[in-house]
Amino acid sequence: MKAKLLCLVFLLAPLAIATAEQKAETVFTDGEVNHKDGSGRTRSLEIGDRLSAGDTVVTKSASSAELKLLAGSSSIKIRQNSVFTLGEMSVDGTKQTVLQTVVGSVAMKFDKLATKEPLVGTTTCVASVRGTEIELYAGMDGSSLVAVVSGAVDLQSAGQTVPLAADEAVQIKPGQAPGPKFSWIGKQLDFSTWNQGNLDDYLTDPVASAQKIEEQLASYRTSMEDLLPQLAAQKAAYDEAYAQLKALVDAKDDAKAKDFRDGTVFPLMLSEATLILNIRYYALTSLSLRRFVLGGMYMQLKTRHPLDASDPAFAGFLEVYSRILKDFEESIVPQLVEADI
Amino acid sequence: MLAVGILAMGLAASLLAACASVPYTPSPKKVQKLLDLIDRGGVGAVKGLSSAPFMLDGEILLRQSDVDSAWSNLKAASFGFGKPAIASISRIGPDSYRLFGDTMDARVFFEKYLDKNSVLASIDASDGRYYLILNREVSGYPRIQGFKGPIK
After folding, report:
1. Is any Cβ of chain A less than 8 angstroms from the Cβ of B127?
2. Which domains does chain A possess?
């Protein structure tokens, strides 16, 4: 029995090994920079540390880090008070790295890559890049600013795509289509000033800002929920195929078992893994949005009105906030694991 | 004589080790000192007194800049407990997280980010009850890992 189990494990091992791929290496750190890995362990980020999909880098004040992608020589500069995640999703059957600026500012420069260029984005937009140098800013209210220094970008938000060329930039509010393009020649954005503007806008109408986050989270939930029935069907098909493979192993029909594994079981495993990957992508992006954007919004209002939840702006916000949390617990939390927190 | 010295040193080392393994419990006087500091808006001035990760009501603040903003906002809002009374200082229990929120976030925060030295201080004030999660001292004050309230 043990030998047969080992045989099955051996047959299915290559796919499991392929999922733990390292994506980037730390080439520079300054100040206090933390690294949370996929197992949920947090420690100080050091030069030479390698990062995999699911890892997060958090920089404190007066701190920064630089990563180098292992595929090619692209660089990622994470500035102070930023949260950056290395994600992964499947697009048209191809696994792609997603470099996500959750909050703060990150500069990325993509050189000649050995593999397909990654997707970049924030919690509210995503972009494909081609030989690009790009600046991404993610504000406290979920707003994004994407500026192209060189190369080209196709930016997507709320189902709309905007092509950006060198020296062009665009702002995106959560749940909204990208705003109008504007010129970005030789500019250096003062992130603090830009983010203060986002904070001022938020404090002027916190209910509207919270509703935008609610819409954005709802769109991720819909994308995720579309995949769940497919995953259930795929899982059932895989379980059936696995039983057949086990029967072939039990019958010691090694040649047939290998053919069945390669032709049927592996493709089913890959399809299931792809669906899980994308469900996790939407769940983790939702968690980032809820943690760093909605959580920051709550903190800003609560600590401004510590004793008076009846303040109309705060009360209105709390109504939307409570609704979001309830929905989050019901729809997103089942797709998360404790290590994500 | 040498043997007595070695024995005494060994005893001292054992005592020190034992002290280090005794879970921290702040005295009411220390908690009162912290409440006074919060009333004066002085938390932000004591480096390391309130560090990320931090739980504000049911929200986990993972960025130090958010924790700092929270205390500076409270100071700007002239937040004060207003005649606080320490109702209890107790060890964290398996269900303590529910006081902050019956959510996965709150549960995992209590399991992952708190340790045996974390305690829960319940404070009754004129605006309602507050809960503070406290830990070993920094600059003579219990370190603050979480804050909830007022609960009317």
Report:
1. yes
2. 24-202 (2.60.120.1440), 206-340 (no CATH)
